[in-house]
Structure formats: C-alpha cells, structure tokens
Amino acid sequence: MSYARDGCSPSPRPPSIALKSAAPKSLLLTGATGLLGSYLIRDLLLDGRKLAVVVRRSRKQSAAARVEAILVHWEETLGKRLPKPVVLEGDLTQPLCGLDADARRWVASHCDEVLNNAASLTFRGSDRDAEPWRTNVTGTDQVLSLARETGLRHFHHVSTAYVCGLRSGRVTEDELDVGQQFGNDYERTKVEGETRVRAATRAAGGFLDSATIYRPSIIVGDSCTGWTSTYHGLFAGLRLGHTLLTRVVKGTTSGPALLGLIGVAPNDTKNFVPVDWVSAVIAHAVQTPPARGTTYHLTHPEPLSMDTVGRLIQQAVEAYSKDASPDDPDLCDEQWFADNLGTQLDIYKSYLRNDPLFDRSHTAALVGHLPCPPLDMPSLMKMAKFAIDHEFGRKSPLKTAANPSPAASTPPSVARS
Ligand SMILES: NC(=O)c1ccc[n+]([C@@H]2O[C@H](COP(=O)([O-])OP(=O)(O)OC[C@H]3O[C@@H](n4cnc5c(N)ncnc54)[C@H](OP(=O)(O)O)[C@@H]3O)[C@@H](O)[C@H]2O)c1
Predict the structure, then answer these.
(1) What whole-number distance in Å separates Cα of residue 140 and Cα of residue 97?
(2) Which of 36, 70, 228 to probe ligand 1 with, by most ligand atoms within 8 A of CB?
(3) Which residues on neighbouring strands pair with residue 115, listed in sequence order?
(4) How far is the CA of 32 from the centre of ligand 1 (A)?
C-alpha cells in the first residue's frame, strides 16, 4: 500500500476500529513552529481536533504571525481552509511557560490534554542553565507545572529513540534508564525529560492520569514531497558533502570517502523516519484514548545502511550541488577541507554510530494500518534536492499566500474568559 494515496496528501484516516474520542476541548501543543510541529498542526486540524499552541515570538515575527505562516502554507498546499488554532505566546523556559493568568485561565477552561513536542536539538552543552537543558528539562518541568495548574491530566511527550544512548542489541519501548552511556548531552536531557514526565503520573505518585511517550528515530523530510524545515541528522552529512563540493574542486572527496574519514562502517545502520509518518502516528495516538499511557518507538522497520547514506550524499551533491569553479576566488584548499572536517568530525562520529535494534511492538500494535513508507533512493533524493534547493534553511520552505484572505491573515488571539 502506498503511504501517500493521492500525490502528496496527508495520511489516511485510521480505520473505524480505532476508538476516536469526541474531544470537544482543545489540545495544547508546544513546538508547533518546528518541523514535526508544523505537520502535527496540519494532521490534527484535518482530523477535527481543536488546537491551542504555545509559541515564542521570533526576532522578526509575533507568535501569531509565525503560526499564520504555517497555516497559509498548508492551506495553499491542500487547497482548503483549516480551522485556526488559538495562539498563546510563551516560552518553555519561563515559569508556567510564560503564560499570564488570563492565558492560564483560558487553558484551564478550554484544553483537556497537552502534547509537549518542543525541544532544543542542540547536541552539546554541559551547563544545565543553557540549552539543551533549559528547554528539554526545565522546559518540560514548566509544561508539567502548567498542566498541573490548569488541570490537564493527559500528557503526551515527544522524546527520542536515542534515549538509549550508546546501547547496542535490542532496546524495548518500556526501557529508559538502564545505566547506559550517552553520545551527547541532548540524549541526556531527553532521558531526564522523559523521567520527569513519568514521575508525574498517578502511578508514580503524581497528578497525571496518563503519560504517553513518542520516541522517533532521526526525522527526515516528507516521504512524498521531500519538504523539510530543519536540517539535522541525515541533512547534516549531506550539507557537509554539499559544502565541500561547492568549496573545493570536484574529486577532492566523495560521500563514501567522507563517511570513511568519519570512521563509519558501510554495514552499520541508522534509523531514519519521514516526518509525515511520525506526525500521522502521533496524531492517531493522540486521538485514540486507549493508546494513552504507553511508550512508542517511532522507528523505521528497515534502517538504512551507512553505505546507502554515503551513496545518497554522493549522488545528491553530484546531481544538485553546483561544482566549485577552478576560477572561483572563494575556492578553498585542502587545508580548509581538513580544518573544516576536523571541527565537525566529533559531532558526526557520535551521531552516525551504529544503531541498536529498536523494538517497535507497541507501535506495530497501534498503527498496523499506517506502515512507515519505504525510504528508497528516489524518496531520499527528493529530500536531498529539497534541502539543496532551499540552501539548508537559508530559503524559507513556507509558501506565502499572494493574497491571504482577511480571516487567514488575522490570527486568532487568546479568548479571555
Ligand atoms: N528532528 C529529529 O531528528 C528528531 C528525532 C527524534 C526526536 N525528535 C524530537 O521531536 C520533537 C520535534 O523536533 P523537530 O525536529 O520538529 O525540531 P525543530 O524543528 O527544531 O522544532 C523545535 C520546536 O520547539 C520549539 N522550542 C524550542 N525551544 C523552545 C522554548 N524554550 N519555548 C518554546 N518553544 C521552544 C521551537 O520553537 P522556535 O521555532 O521558536 O525555535 C520549535 O517549534 C522534539 O521533541 C525533538 O526532541 C526530533
């Protein structure tokens, strides 16, 4: 069965055996402006779920304008209008996520559960007052405090499959801290975040009726369109290959040679999942009350070999990156190549290590009707092309409406009660 049924439209609605809640109240979502968050907005709204989002302002845009840009993008892409989420300006690192008393009263009367998807994806940082600790640990605490104060009793939390750290062998969905070593600080913060959410359940003496944990592996672009808005993981290696090809004379290196330099074995495997599938599974679980209280490995049943990753980088940069011209005054020499690679090596080494086997029994039982789309060379090349065309984030991937209607251009404000 093909995952995207009619070109590039969202996932199919699950079959009727799934128990769908009437869900008259809103779901409070964090991290709505990120890669996964923008898909969650789309899928949950299409599924009829009312949403309230906690979003921080950027240097140039208000929180409401940022959410509006995402909605305009989806409305243009889907060719249909979507209901508007309520936008609450906030920041997870602030007490009670920075929501004032009015906003909190609104949440208390209009929301019934929370999906904490926001995180800092900064890999390194040992200072617990800085990222990734501030958002992933302190921020999770603040979302929990907000949930406690506003009476939200069902907590959905996006973690990562890499809470397993440097473990090898089979890793089950019920395991968390088994004394494993970690590859980076990000993994440590995600373990602490999960631990705090679990500790807040009634079963552990806390206030939550349920804590549902989602652990994706490395999220890549849309399996159908290649769309992405962030460039971690797979794209980091691709970006390095692209940068090298556009800064040094062709033939200086290659994708497989790059991975060889980093010390990656061709038969090692890495687990990548397309963002549209991750979002579809989470949206389905959120809308299915019996799914609550479980941990799900949102991982691909068929991980990619590092040999495939190396070949992808090679093919993609050869097909889509512009070669450096020998006359280019910005052309870099071998020393630049060595220095540049040297500074990045450690990050990639810890990231591209061989994966353990992620047991996905809970996920398979929940979403047997939503198989993870295969990540074959054509779909990976589409993602690589998208990343290179959008200069790894220098060009915004969000469509902008030529003439947004007044309703679409006026984001809703918080209803005060
Ligand atoms: N990407 C992956 O490969 C991957 C793999 C496994 C798990 N995950 C998990 O999946 C979730 C979503 O990741 P993603 O890939 O969508 O990341 P992303 O694109 O970087 O998005 C992160 C989101 O979190 C928000 N955020 C960060 N710090 C915040 C703060 N202090 N207050 C309010 N909002 C804050 C960001 O807001 P701004 O737009 O304002 O920065 C953004 O909306 C995260 O929990 C992540 O740990 C990701």
Answers:
(1) 9
(2) 36
(3) 29, 156
(4) 8
Nearest atom of ligand 1 to the alpha carbon of 218: 3
Q: What are the pLDDT digits (tens) for 177-200?
A: 999 999 999 999 999 999 999 999
Pocket of ligand 1 (CB under 6 A): 30-37, 56, 91-93, 117-121, 135, 139, 158, 160, 216, 218-219, 230, 232-233
255-262 vs 334-351: helix axis angle to the nearest 10?
A: 70
Nearest-angstrom CA–CA distance, 73 and 402: 11
- For the sheet with 295-298, list strands across it: 86-89, 51-55, 26-30, 111-116, 154-158, 210-216, 295-298
Closest to 174 measured CA to CA, from 363, 369, 367: 363
| pLDDT, tens digit, 9 for 90 and up, residues 121-172 | 999 999 999 999 999 999 999 999 999 999 999 999 999 999 999 999 999 9
Mean pLDDT score of the chain: 86
Nearest Cα to Cα of residue 358 among 167, 221, 102, 209: 167
From the CA of 33, give the closest atom in ligand 1.
Answer: 43
- For the whole model, what pTM was predicted? 0.90
Entry field: residues in the chain: 417
Atom 13, ligand 1: residue with shortest CA distance = 36
Which residue, 297, 270, 271, is CA-closest to 172? 297
Enumerate domains of the chain plus CATH numbers: 26-219+271-301+356-371+398-409 (3.40.50.720)
Q: Which of 28, 33, 190 to mutate to test the pocket of ligand 1 (most atoms within 8 A of CB)?
A: 33
- Determine if residue 391 is left, alpha or beta; phi over 0 gives left, psi from -120 to 50 gives alpha, anything else beta: left
86 pairs with which residues across the strands?
A: 52
For the chain, state the CA radius of gyration: 21
Cβ-contact 117, 123 below 8 angstroms: no
